[in-house]
Write a structure and sequence with these properties.
The structure is a homodimer.
Chain A (H helix, E strand, L loop, with lengths): L25 H16 L6 H8 L3 H7 L3 H24 L6 H18 L7 H8 L6 H26 L9 H22 L3 H14 L1 H4 L4
Helix pairs in contact in A: 1-2, 1-4, 4-5, 4-7, 5-7, 6-7, 7-8, 8-9
The first copy, chain A, binds a DNA duplex (30 and 30 nucleotides) through helix 3.
Chain lengths: ~220, ~220
DNA sequence: GATTTTCCAAGCCGATCGGTCTAATAAATC
DNA sequence: GATTTATTAGACCGATCGGCTTGGAAAATC
């Protein structure tokens, strides 16, 4: 019925939309500084004005690009999920490394990322998840979906390790990936609280020892 | 120099302080409802007025008992830590049960506690820890100290299990208790996000399998 | 140059924030 | 009853909250 948006419109009339992929465009800048601030302080504790001041963007622009603070938060989740998916791909798809080494590489990268910010920034998804009781309901499904996505990618990596013989056959890699992300988020939370990497190291070491336990037990 | 407070003052002049141990006293009621609300929504997202309305206490009383919202938050942490320490004692000191069973009992109790509130309430300490970036600095040390206390109590229980032969000798129970609380808080966070107990179950099962792995591995 | 649309800029709104203040009331001693 | 202290009660304050509004500048088409 209504005129469908064709793949390539013949032309638009007025001023064309700014290329928002440019990293210095206001929208992209808002998302970047938004992630930086919210990974540190969460959603409820941060006012729109603080983000505006930090990104040096006037209020009019904010409500031009995002309909509300809630809409902005949802866009932040998407941006963070996309950023993190690229990061996971980079490590988990590195054919040069043994599968289990890829997991170690990711862990080391995440650890140094937290160190770089003085252990003040955590994980956006974990942060917002903890705040869920005070957040608009649409956040819940998106956050849960992001975790599922990360676990899927991790499970693939673990299955590759299993195929390589680095993880005992009987283990269910989906459950193991689930276990990893449950605990890893706890470790990130704790590292942020203590401003120290200890929790990351303790969990990572325990997890890796766990999946190789059968190799470390008494040999037959 | 100054008149020291003797063990038993001869008498006070005016109206004596109300017995605040009475569970219906305003101060106790504020702490109770404060824990209930903050375990669900956190600190920053909750206004003093909301707590006042829910506890049915006027603002004057609040600022009579607590100097500020921050002071109230610190008192909440102490109250919650005391409540939780009693809970841990109840389970971990139950001489009727095998040490490892005591840990299982605690886990089951915590799980049913979350279920009772529809998985809407998490752990106050974990919640505030995640918010730390937006919280007054004094919160940090208290929260970290609470975790250390819980881990100490847990480690004692694990050592008892080790003495009973239910955990392999070589394992360091302090590290293991640390690992447990890092991951358990992650599981609580996740269960709250998903409003399901799955994360609690996955982590608990994984953890328990982990400490008994050597018994499950190939026998010599 | 007129028109159309995008984007920038900021003043302003009502609501809510944490916190203060004053007055009244209650419960004890003197 | 006078005094002293504890507690209740809520109006009120300036600041900040998320969000709306209006106006104009910029960039394209016609």
């Amino acid at each position: 019925m209504s005129s469908e948006a064709s793949v390539s419109e013949p032309r638009r009339r007025g001023r064309p939309p700014r290329d928002q992929s440019h990293p210095n465009a206001p929208r992209a800048r808002l998302l970047r500084t938004g992630v930086a601030i919210l990974t540190e302080k969460g959603f409820s504790a941060v006012g729109v004005d603080e983000i505006l001041a930090s990104a040096d963007v006037p209020k009019g622009s904010f409500y031009h690009y995002f309909g509300s603070k809630e809409a902005f938060g949802l866009a932040l989740i998407d941006a963070y999920a996309a950023y993190f998916a690229r990061k996971l791909n980079r490590w988990f798809d590195d054919a040069e490394r043994a599968p289990l080494e890829r997991l170690r590489d990711f862990i080391a990268d995440a650890r140094s990322g937290m160190a770089r910010h003085g252990y003040r920034r955590g994980c956006l998804v974990g942060n917002l998840g903890q705040e869920m009781g005070a957040l608009p309901e649409p956040f819940r499904m998106r956050l849960a979906a992001v975790f599922r996505d990360w676990e899927m990618r991790t499970s693939r990596c673990l299955r590759a390790a299993q195929a390589a013989g680095d993880i005992p056959k009987g283990i269910d890699c989906d459950s193991l990936a689930h276990f990893f992300w449950i605990g890893w988020e706890g470790a990130v939370l704790r590292a942020k609280l203590e401003r120290r990497p200890d929790a990351l190291d303790v969990f990572a070491r325990g997890f890796l020892a766990m999946i190789q336990a059968n190799d470390m037990g008494p040999r037959r």
